[in-house]
Amino acid sequence: MKDIFDYLHTVEILNRIDTLSPVSQPHWGKMDVAQMLAHCSAFQDIAMGNTSPPRGWLGVLIGKFAKPVFYNDKPLARNMSTIPTVLVTDKKVFEAEKERLKQKIIEFQSNGPESCTTHPHPFFGKLTPEQWGKGLYKHLDHHLKQFGV
């Protein structure tokens, strides 16, 4: 499984982000490309400990049993539900969101596993830095595939 803490995997993700354009169209889902980038930044903020959304009751009940979905080798399902705090529906500026996400990915990768939040994921609960690294790569990969890159 690829991992955002691996420099080469980070470079791959950044290069794929660079192939996006303001007119990139999704193969599924409701977000436009700028909203997707903002969504990924908001998710990155959770892993970095910049935000810590509360756990929902469903996550408390089943999150620990479902959490391998976040970091295993199977692709994420299309149109999965998301954490309400990272759902982006308002208009965003593509170039600003693209640069913001790239900077957050670079910062997270360069700070290393010890920089991961110790707060639980809002659905899956407690994650190790290794699980965060794999899960962040998988999440970014999912959304880049959503836009064909």
From TrEMBL:
This is DUF1569 domain-containing protein. Gene3D superfamilies: dinb family like domain.
